[in-house]
Amino acid sequence: MARYGFVFNVERCNGCFSCFLACKDEHTGNCHCPTCAATTECINLKRIDEVQYGSDDKVKVDYMHYVCQQCADPACMKKFPNEIYKRDDGIVIIDPEKAKGKKEIVDACPYNAIVWNPEAQLPQKCTMCAHMLDAGETVTRCSEVCPNAALLFGDLDDPNSEISKYVAEHKDELEKLHPEFGTGPAHWYRHIPKPFICGEVVCKDTDECCKGAKVTLTCDECGTARTTETDFLGDFEFRGLPTNKPFTVKIEADGYKPCELKARTKASVNLGEIFIEKA
Amino acid sequence: MEKVYVNMTTGGPISVYVEDGKITRIRPIQIPAEDYPEPWKITAQDGKTYQPPKAVRVSQTIMTERNRLYSEDRILYPMKRVDWDPKGERNPQNRGKSGYERISWDEAATIIADEIKRISPKREDGMYDGHAITAITGSHHNWGIVGYKMAPFGRFFGMLNYTPILDNPDSWEGWMWGAPHMYGFYWRLGQPEQFDLLEDALKYTDMVVFWSNDPDSTHGIYSGQESNIWRVWIKEMGIKTVFIDPFYNYTNAVMDGTWFAPRPGTDTALAAAICYQWFVDDTYDHDFVERKTIGIEEFKAYIMGDEDGIPKTPEWAAEKTGLQARRIRALAREWASKRVALGGGVRGGEGSACRAAYATEIARYIIALQAMQGLGKPGVSIWGACMGAPCDFTWFPGYAEPDSQMGKSRAAEHKFALTNPTQQRLYRLTYPEAIPAGHGEFIGDGFCGQSIEQQFNHHEYPIEGKIKMFWRYGGAFMGTMTDTNRYAALYQYAGENALECVINQDCWFSGETKFADLILPACTNLERNDLGEFSVSGGYTTHACIGNNWRIIVREQKAVEPLGESKSDYDIFTLVAEKLGLGDVYTEGKDENDWAREYWNLSELSQRMSWEEFEKKGYYIVPVPENYESHPAFRWYYEDRDCDTQDYLNPKIKAANNMNTLEPTEHSKELGSYSGKIEFASESLKKLSPDDQERPAVPKYIPSWEGHESELYEKYPLQMISPHPRFSFHTHYDKHASWLNQVPVHRVMVNGYAYWTVRINPNDAVARDIQNGDLVELYNDRGSVICAAEVTYRVPKGVVHSYGCCAKYDPLTNEVGATDKGGCVNLLTNARFLSQNVPGMAPNSCLIEIRKWGN
Lengths: 279, 855
Known about the structure:
A: mainly beta, Alpha-Beta Plaits, B: Dimethylsulfoxide Reductase, domain 2, Barwin-like endoglucanases, 8-stranded mixed beta sheet, 24% helix
């Protein structure tokens, strides 16, 4: 049997909101019962948060996509087994007839993926365009319009599907959103925004950018180390770091004294200009 | 029963789903995979072969097309202002204040025809001398060559012998007024050719520099999001990217490129310092400079300070730009060591830096930088990173081609756009003053695509006589032009030269609509038949289809009946023409379908697919030939060959066979500058404008007339840039498509009102006690606008970013100059021209202050 899901490649997403708007076009005023009743203008079955991090001229902007995670073991269904069911293809459906008037369903999702439609008196969420799949289509409205191929949709159970091949190829870089909720979310995320540490290495004697310096980042807790090289501007960065961990940054350049700095990833850390001295 | 139609928009082709006479959803055009021809293939420097997906990627705004169609802002009935009486008091002072009453189409057309007759003497040939009528359009509220502004509008007003208002090149000012003096291309209004540069970049480029270029937001103009995937390839291939922009723009964000944020208006200083470093390090392409350029010694004299005693060192530039000298030097060195594609905007030119004081200079510096590195060498180009895909170039007219203009086309018997004898002209940037003053002068012909000399043509108003009727069509200038309270003030002016009759014809209520005496409801291209090619404007941008993965021409099919009593523009003008006794003259007996068929048949494409077949199928995808030969822009020039690109307006090559064949002439190796070469010191400026210190022969850094070095900076210490927008197209889609209010980075909902966003650096915000999401007032001596603050490092200290092109003009009172809460930041911008002899607009030279609103 199929199990549908998405891959959200955060690094590729440019925040165009095409998916968000296509979703509105599909659902606003359009009834797709029995899987989804019509929504109204202010109802968004998908949420996209712009995430800005870093500081000064070392800033990053990413977009996080939040939709129903089509969990294998949905918390909402556990609480509302009469109103919510899971189809054979893994899509979780809130029955628009049975759920009418039950605002409490909104709170049953740990991912906050259910929204309340006050006009229709309905809890609503993403159905992965189940009505389109039922009509024989192979795309959702959101995945169809992504210009950067940042949003993939398909059958995760079919090893030959594009999405399965992608998941297999990039397994190490893929994560689930809040796996600790224990509900078995279907979707994968690549490059969820995480703190980064960056800086700019300057040769103190010449006041020139230090290109090609070796920079080593070591976690003071676990001892894991990563290295990189400064680019033509003397810039370096380490992305995808765990939150609130202590790190040591060591800079080594030929003919210069090595230099060490400390940084804690409460948020991203821009170490700014780091002047290294002649050996 | 669901029916599916096809249509075309500013952001790409669509499929329109209709049930019970109502559009239910709109998707990118649905074409079965087997119907797509073989996609082009490019083998890149990483050894991989890249091919586009068999799908079309339209602009994000297009997802709101249904929402916009059924907008509450739609104008549904003809209306007349209650206190405007064409037979009595006209009360111009009440424009924008008094209400409207509904009238019938017959009443509206009769009033208009009577007004035209009243102010236009009958000529001997039975036509009207309509010099007292003027009219102007916005651009791109609709798409389709039968219905576009140059068609019914152009034909109607040409027939009336009206006074045209010339458009300024508002998106690429510095390029049009500057670049031709260095390398020609006046026939492209200063923009460089972009042919086959995608392949060139994927194969040979080591680094792409985006200078004031944000293709992920501005989409190669009409190419939707077709090119996004190219930039994904570039990034994932590991090609380095550098972004030079005071705003950390959206393309920068997704490509994670290195960011340089010079102070607005100082781009030229940065460029000059890069040139300085290349001279000092001797890292420029001597061979190319010697062979293919002139004036390098004069240029070098300026850069090295021999001329003015100021060497343009990185240290000097650091002081101007706010950047670090060592980073400027490092950038220059990296650049010289690599093959760089440099884009100054989506079409090579454009970009916010070229809409600023003295912006002719940055356009010329972008050419200078690439000329010093051998422009046209493999991998070295002026490339906006969103055009230059392989393409079959079989000619089909874009809307700006003479052949698709109803007043010029071979399909028309009477070529009214060519026969209007009225000599007087108004100019879009100055008519708000010229009309009330009863006098105006300006230089240049607006779009100067015929010659370099055309930039110096002198116009005076009036010649035939003063304007009495103003017909405004599609859109509003409050959100797009400069110091835009001027446009409101014109309507309410009640003196001797007051406008007697103002008509506004549009699909939606826009910022200017409420100033009209008569409002005419037009329908959209979803409510009428038309045809059009994806992204192709034609005219001065030949073959814009190279911004797409797929070249698609669509038979635009009427999906629903026009809403309310709205009519197609063609039908509206026909109705008025009938009342003037010119109905048959105007239509030549043709309806919109007849025009569409004739345009199709004018093109060679009709030999590949008959009109009947095209009508039935709804679209035609032009396949790229299997043996496609790439002819990259400027390669011919670098290699000293005849021009071999498809640049068919280039007068140095000869277009024949209905634009499909290009033949060399004895000048085909030359550029369009006076010398035929790239001119570091401009021969045309030396001859035509010899004493001009503000656009001198050698391009220079000239401190902005409204920037960090000007006196006003003390009073208004924030530099505001207002680039082209991300979630609207010009002013279109914003406001009318209310779904966009839910996009949190477009507008911000505060107390139930969707406010325009202004971006401000945390340091500047703290100093003003402003927090993220606060309502703030942007103000200077010209105006005041309320926005919602986004506190962000995406702008450096001292810089404020708020998109231009806001559609909502919502002043707190009806008085001109009142605080606007809609978000038209153009109310704040300076109407001053780029420079003394350059009549372009400079919205990105604007000083303001910001304070919390409501305190």
